[in-house]
């Protein structure tokens, strides 16, 4: 089960308003028709959406898209499907797609919980990336965090055998929760003794690099499906 059908169900995002820059608006017009996939309550045909057959990696919450664009360029042999609700972020990544000539990336602007439930076929994903999700700092809000048992179980159902989940956070409390939740999922096995070394494909963001210089920690977790 990926979600609670009541109004209090977990969502994969906090709605954030934002104005589109002229360049982002232009990117929607120029590149949206080719690279944006409309949300639908029907399984997505990956081969048709990407125009080829290749392993698919899903990224949930790509922000402004810099990391997503970097990884897609670095792994041309894979297809990447990014899900984000923040309109300026989607516009920013569409702009990068156009400027950098990225062809193996498609975007869905919608709640990722519903995208997973309705559009991602079971056993179809080679991997899932969730980098720096909202940590919900106050303890009473921890139940709103995305990485919880039912959600992770739902992710596992969408992974192919041997597929992986890669999480990263710069909040230690959330890192502890992530490790507990993933370790408790019987379908997953940890690739490390605890937290993983940062995989080479994930670049350091400017924000992350600044935090590391200030002594802040960053925790990566990489688990694979049994």
From TrEMBL:
Which residues are substrate-binding? 138, 170, 205-208
Q: List the catalysed reactions.
A: guanosine(46) in tRNA + S-adenosyl-L-methionine = N(7)-methylguanosine(46) in tRNA + S-adenosyl-L-homocysteine
Protein's pathway: tRNA modification; N(7)-methylguanine-tRNA biosynthesis
Pfam families annotated for this entry? Methyltransf_4
Establish whether keyword Transferase is in the entry: yes
Q: Which UniProt keywords apply?
A: Methyltransferase, S-adenosyl-L-methionine, Transferase, tRNA processing
- Segments carrying the region annotation (Interaction with RNA) are 140-145
Which E.C. number(s) belong to this protein? 2.1.1.33
Residues bound to S-adenosyl-L-methionine are: 59, 84, 111, 134
Question: What top-level class of enzyme does the UniProt entry assign?
Answer: transferase
The UniProt entry, under InterPro entries, shows: SAM-dependent_MTases_sf, tRNA_(Gua-N-7)_MeTrfase_Trmb, tRNA_methyltr_TrmB_bact
Question: What biological function has been recorded for the protein in this entry?
Answer: Catalyzes the formation of N(7)-methylguanine at position 46 (m7G46) in tRNA.
Instruction: Say which species the protein is native to.
Output: Massilia solisilvae
Chaperone listed as a keyword: no
Q: Which NCBIfam families match?
A: tRNA (guanosine(46)-N7)-methyltransferase TrmB (TIGR00091)
Name of the protein in question: tRNA (guanine-N(7)-)-methyltransferase
Molecular function (GO) terms for this protein are: tRNA (guanine(46)-N7)-methyltransferase activity
What family classification does the UniProt entry report for this protein? Belongs to the class I-like SAM-binding methyltransferase superfamily. TrmB family.
């Amino acid at each position: 089960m990926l979600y609670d059908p009541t109004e209090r169900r977990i969502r994969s995002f906090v709605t954030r308003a934002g104005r589109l820059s002229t360049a982002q608006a232009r990117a929607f017009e120029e590149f949206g028709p080719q690279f944006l996939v409309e949300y639908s309550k029907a399984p997505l045909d990956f081969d048709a959406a990407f125009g080829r057959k290749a392993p698919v990696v899903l990224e949930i919450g790509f922000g402004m898209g810099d990391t997503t664009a970097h990884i897609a360029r670095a792994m041309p042999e894979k297809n990447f499907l990014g899900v984000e609700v923040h309109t300026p972020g989607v516009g920013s990544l569409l702009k990068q797609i156009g400027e950098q000539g990225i062809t193996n990336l498609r975007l869905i602007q919608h709640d990722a919980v519903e995208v997973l439930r309705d559009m991602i076929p079971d056993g179809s994903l080679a991997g899932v990336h969730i980098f720096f999700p909202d940590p919900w700092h106050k303890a009473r809000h921890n139940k709103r965090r995305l990485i919880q048992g039912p959600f992770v179980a739902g992710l596992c159902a969408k992974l192919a055998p041997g597929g992986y989940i890669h999480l990263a956070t710069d909040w230690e409390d959330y890192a502890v929760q992530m490790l507990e939740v993933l370790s408790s999922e019987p379908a997953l096995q940890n690739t490390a003794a605890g937290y993983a070394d940062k995989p080479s494909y994930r670049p350091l963001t400017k924000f992350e690099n600044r935090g590391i210089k200030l002594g802040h920690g960053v925790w990566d977790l990489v688990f694979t499906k049994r």
